Amino acid sequence: MDNQLKMFIYPGKLYASKIPYQLSTILGSCVAICLWDSTKQIGGMNHYMLPLWNGDGLASPKYGNVAVENLIKKLLFFGCNKKNIKAKIFGGASVIKNTNDFYNIGERNIQIADEMLQKAGIKIVARSTGGDKGRKIMMDTSTFQIRHKFIEKKNF
Amino acid sequence: MKMENTDKSNGELESLKKENTYLLAQLTKLNQKLEESDSFKSHFISNITNEIVNPFTSILGISKNIISLGANKISQIHSMANLIYNEAFDLDFQLQNIFAAAKIESGEINLELTSIEPIAFVENIIESLRFKSEKKAQYIEIIAHDDVPSNFVTDEEKFNVIIKNIITNAIIFGDDKTRIGVNIEGKDDQIVIKVNNKGSLIDKEELDKIFDRFTKLDKNINSVNQGHGLGLSVTKSYLEFLDGEISVESDENIGNTFSVVMHPSENNSDSLIRDDDLFIDDSEIF
Question: The domain at B1-108 falls in which architecture?
Answer without folding.
Answer: Orthogonal Bundle (1.10)
